[in-house]
């Protein structure tokens, strides 16, 4: 999810004729994630699927999914 400060930086770099790929590679190298810098209606969304088999014998695995709409700051309850 592009914030105003990040968007200003990207616009500044584009005005200096820095290629988009160079900008995004640099941002990723500075620990920005794809979710942080993505543009579009689902920018900032993260999805997590995992297997839980912690119940012990008899082992019975469950597959869970969770969703974050704010780049991972908060998560939905597992379903």
Report on this structure.
The chain has 79 residues and is of the alpha+beta class. Helices cover 33% and strands 18% of the residues. The chain contains 3 helices and 2 strands. It has a two-stranded antiparallel ribbon. It is elongated, with a radius of gyration of 18 Å. The mean pLDDT is 85.
Provide tags for this entry.
single chain, 79 residues, alpha+beta, two-stranded antiparallel ribbon, 3 helices
Amount of beta strand: 15-25%
Count of runs of 4 or more consecutive helical residues: 3
Strand count, sense and barrel status of the largest sheet are: 2 strands, antiparallel
Distance between the termini: 24 Å
Q: Ranges with pLDDT <50 over ≥5 residues?
A: none
What would you call the structural class? alpha+beta
Mean pLDDT level: 85
Order of helices and strands: HHHEE
In short:
This protein has 79 residues and is α+β, with helices and mostly antiparallel strands. The protein is built from 3 helices and 2 strands, in the order αααββ.
List the helices and strands and how they pair.
Layout: H1 4-15, H2 20-29, H3 34-37, E1 46-52, E2 62-68
Antiparallel strand pairs: 1-2
